[in-house]
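As promised in the previous annual report, we have extended the structural survey to additional targets. Below is the entry for Cilia- and flagella-associated protein 43.
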Amino acid sequence: MERLLLTRGPDSRRRALMDMMGGVLEVKKEDILRMVIPQPPFMVKPDALWSEEERKLFKEYEKKVKELNEERDKYRKSLETEMKKLQNSIQEGTQNFDEHLKRLFERRVKAEMVVNQEELKINNLIFSLLLDEEISSRETFLNNYLARKQEERNQTTEAIRKSREDLDTYKEHYDNLLAEDKVLDRSFKKEFSEIPSHQVDILYKLFKRRPRIHKHKIHAETTSLVPFGERPGSGKLNKDAFAQLMKAMDDLDSTNNMPEGLDTSVWEHFCMTRRAKVENEQKVKQKAAGLIEMVAFLRRRTEDDEKVQHEIEKVFHELILLQEEKVKFQLNLTIQILLKQGQVELENFQLMLDYSDAILINKIIIEDLNSVIRTQGQKKVASMMESKEVHKGIFQIEWEHKKMEMEMEDLNQKAWDIQMLFFSRDRQKYLNEPNYETLIAIQIGIMEQTIAVLDKTHKKNVENCKKLLKKLRRYSNQKDIANYTLSCNLREELVAVSERKDICNAMGSKLTCEKIAKERYENMMRQQKLTKISKQQADQISILQAEVERLRMKTFPALVQM
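The corresponding structure token record, generated without further manual editing, is:
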């Protein structure tokens, strides 16, 4: 039993805690408000079936529910006020934190700005030191190079001077040998003037004749040697060539080559002269070859000297540029200036850090310039407004002028209409006569008398017309009787005429021609009569038209033009 109680002990405690305290040892207010009041079981039934006790229980239930709701509302409001306080405190804390963080960030930005400025200064100093060191090293190198080139130029200048002196001396010897060779050539005919001329010509041809000698190839290395020093092998080559030439001359000096009829002594003298000429020519050739080599050597030395001079000038130019650049870097110093945003005014400024063409200007100068610009702008605006008012007045005057011109045209048109208005005599009288009504009354009386007279006259005329009508009727009856008589006579006459026509036709065409002529004459007379009548009628019509025009003009008003 005890073991059973021990095993069931915790469960019974938990169940008791759940039944009595709702599973907690301490009851909180929100737990109480979270509770739900159970409805009475009788609320399932309709209201009409409730008893008095049930109604009382229902009222108590409603009261408890109402109190619980009120407590919930109060608690909710208290929680809302507490939540607002907490939100305000949180917002204040966040604002304070943001402000503190902002101040720290600004301090950090300023510190970084100062650090960057100092680093920029250090970098500028390092750059200037490196640049100065580079310029100094470059200047030292150029000075050393210039000294070497100047020494080299002195050597080349000395070599050129010596070469020119040697060339002048050598050229003088060459000119002397060349002159001697020409003298030998010119004095040939004088020496052999005693012999005949044809033999002299043959000897002169033999004098110009030279033996053929095999030429040795000279290596290219010998051309690069200095012509003023000892050249190994050159003397030996010249001696060999001269020996071959002399050997060939011995063959030419043999008596087999002597012309016919020539004396032996003359031939020997000729051979000696030719040999001297050949020896002189050989010397001239050697001197010419040496002269060519000396000229080539002098040209090469001159070209080398020009190259050295060009390099020296180039080095001098580089030194000048380097010194200018050095002076520029010494004078054009880099200075850091702190400027506020909005005080930098550059054309096409797009956050570029290139201020190479910028100028630092004092703020006072800019303000003075802005004030001058503002003053000039105000003057310009005032002048524009004044010009606007003047133009406005001009337009108004032009409009008034056009208005007056149009009114004048309207008045002229009205005056013309009044002048051209039809104005009868009655209207003229009405305007001109002061007693127009009396005049009208008199005219009415006269017209009444006239009407009475006309009435009497009309009656008399009617009676006369009636009498005349009776007479005319009687006369008409008489005429009818006469016409009847004439018609009877006409029939008889027609019968007679037809008989006569037949007789005339039988008689011939003579009477017919006379009849035609007579008819033509009658037609001409009738035409003349009608022409006269038409002329008279035309004259009468013109007279009547003139009278009508005169009467019409009398009715127009005669007004003075305004």
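Residues 216-235, 558-562 have pLDDT under 50 and may be disordered. The chain is about 80% helix and 0% strand. These points will be discussed at the next consortium meeting with the crystallography subgroup.
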